[in-house]
Amino acid sequence: MQLIEPSLEFESSFAQFYEDFAANDEINSDYYLEGVLNFNAYIQCLKDEAKGINLVEDYVQCSHFWLVDANKNIYGAIRVRHNIDTELLALEAGHIGYDIAPAYRGKGYGTLMLKKALLKAQAIGLAKALVVADEDNTASRKVIEANGGQLESVVFGKVYPNPLARYWIECD
Q1: Structural domain span for residue 88
Q2: Per-residue pLDDT tens over the stretch 120-157
Q3: Tell me: the pLDDT tens digits for 93-123?
Q4: Which CA distances in Å does 42 have to 34, 39, 46, 158?
Q5: Contact 155, 166 (CB under 8 A)
Q6: Which residues are in the N-acetyltransferase domain (predicted)?
Q7: CA distance linking residue 18 with residue 102, whole number of Å
């Protein structure tokens, strides 16, 4: 398993990744819909975000990665934001956000993906990363804690008005 930057060669794998979300996790599938509507533009957008160019208002430079196997199956997607200099990111989203495809949940891939992403965060200069999960998302909280996450607080979001568990993780 490796963490790779999104690439055009994964178009069919991404379509399967999206279909898994569409069938089993509709709420999060919208985040990936653009990738099936126009894969080339989607990949270019992710590459631009990683370079900090053509950013949508209130977005920050953000590197995107996919956890893939030797057969080019995409198990998950993870985003590493280079800073959290907006109110939303500082309170509700943090430096790192991730999704494991529904078919691969509960098998340790989230823990592995976050571990690998922390090395990417360190490489861009982060000493520690804020990672946020819904307070009632036990699986995500276990992933964060398995990677050394220390609970800072539980807050109520403004954009996502539900209890959010905020964790800090050392990137080294």
Answers
A1: 2-170
A2: 999 999 999 999 999 999 999 999 999 999 999 999 98
A3: 999 999 999 999 999 999 999 999 999 999 9
A4: 6, 5, 6, 28
A5: yes
A6: 8-172
A7: 10
Q: How far is CA 71 from the centre of its chain?
A: 21
DSSP string, 64-123: EEEEE-TT--EEEEEEEES---SHHIIIIIBSEEEEE-GGGTTSSHHHHHHHHHHHHHHH
Q: What CATH number has the domain bearing residue 14?
A: 3.40.630.30
Q: Say how many domains are in the chain.
A: 1
Q: What is the mean pLDDT of residues 37-43?
A: 97
The pTM for the full model equals 0.94
Pairing of strands 2-4, 62-68: antiparallel
Cα 79 off chain centre by: 4
Selection from 39, 63, 65, 41 nearest residue 52 by Cα: 63
| Nearest to 68, CA basis, from 119, 139, 14 | 14
Query: Which residues 6+ apart lie within 8 Å of 75 measured at CB?
Result: 1, 66, 67, 68, 69, 100, 101, 104, 109, 113
- Give residue-wise pLDDT tens across range 1-22: 999 999 999 999 999 999 999 9
Whole-number Å distance between alpha carbons of 89 and 157: 10
